[in-house]
Amino acid sequence: MIERSVYLNKLIKSKENGFPKVITGIRRCGKSYLLKEIYKKYLIETGVKESNILVLELDEEENSKYRDPIYLGDFVRNFCNNKSMCYVFLDEIQKVIPIVNPVLTNGEHIKAKDTDEDVISFVDVVLGLSHKPNIDLYVTGSNSKMLSTNIITEFRDKATNISIYPLSFEEYYNYVGGSTTDAMFEYMQHGGMPLAVLKDEDDKEEYLKGLFETTYFKDILEHNKLYKSESLDELCNIISELTGSLLNSKKISDTFKSVKHEDIDKQTIDKYIEYFKDAFILREARRYDLKGREEIGALQKYYFTDTGLRNARLNFAFPDEGQMLENVVYNELIYNGYTVNVGTFETIEKNKDGKSVRKTNEVDFYATKNKKRLYIQVSKDISNEKTMNRELSPFHRLNDQIQKVVVINKPIKETFDKDGYTIIGVADFLLRYIK
């Protein structure tokens, strides 16, 4: 069993808190497995009777009648009636079909249209069941209707949202063991999608490439009522190639035109990027003025939730080590609870003609967690003096007490340079330093 202790602890912490637990995340990242295997095992080991645990898989044909929200609510209440605390797992909750309030249809259960107003949906069922004092409710789903990041807004402040991501490097390494160098190379190449981790190399690459075509694009098209995927597909490829670059819709539009020799307007690009973010495929790091202490500008960097998915878009052909390393570091900082921005600040310097010019400096990441603050530069190697000077240059210009860290793709432990900056190998940084 692949341990997912961070998410298990979140479930334990929210246990019996009076709110439904809504488990969201990119498809195939292990949401159902977390509930039905890991969390269920924990409940039984801590004394919960198995007869007090209801696992209802709504995508199973034998449970199809419970896709009616009223029948579903009645079934769960009957199961829990006259029992002590029951733990109810509703898997594939998006299978529940919204119906028109039967009061308006002479008691008939009629599928609701988009234009109908008095509708009973899975949201009503979840909130209704969660009000029962002996029901601790957990719901998850795995298509576009449930994956949307805005699903939690339907529950307003009446639910606990737990977002699940693919395996972190820590989770991956705890499972595979061995050399951290070998593990990091494999993780950067193929990522941490749980089913991919369990496959051999050829099978995992086909699996990851297939996820986009058969799952993610299909969901995005369905959820957003799109009819063609060509532009969506090409935009995903372009962002894959530009992972970790400062982007805005104009720059992407220009790149799209140079690659496809077609125009795509900025509004469409912004809309499509939101679709990818909404399905948890992409996350963004916005720029932060390190001296003005505020987020600034329209430029941002995009990172894939999983490096294996990013590399699948490029057919695993000559992936850029620096981009993959930066993507991994960003994901791990988020996993460990940091708020992450791209650090930027301006300085006035002399050019070769002796004139004062304004220069924009960039730090890969400005990461904060509680009182901990870090400036982080990510580089595959700094053995070259020119590379070292380039990476450290922004640190020299920042006259503050925030810890400055250079993360490199080498198997070295934490050390310091002559200026007191931390130099650390990526494995030590991820498995220990940021904890």
Task: Summarize it.
This protein is of the alpha/beta class and 435 residues long. It has helices spanning 5-14, 31-45, 69-80, 122-130, 144-147, 151-154, 169-176, 180-190, 194-197, 201-224, 230-241, 249-260, 266-278, 307-313, 321-335, 385-397, 426-433; strands at residues 21-25, 53-57, 86-91, 99-100, 119-120, 135-140, 160-164, 282-289, 294-304, 339-350, 356-369, 372-379, 403-408, 415-416, 422-425.
Tell me the number of structural domains. 2
Shape: globular
Radius of gyration: 24 Å
- Strand tally is 15
Query: Tally the helices: what do you get?
Result: 17
Strand content: 15-25%
**What's the end-to-end separation, in Å?**
23 Å
Q: How would you classify the helix and strand content by structural class?
A: alpha/beta
Mean pLDDT: 92
Strand order of the largest sheet: 9-8-10-11-12-13-15-14
Low-confidence stretches: none
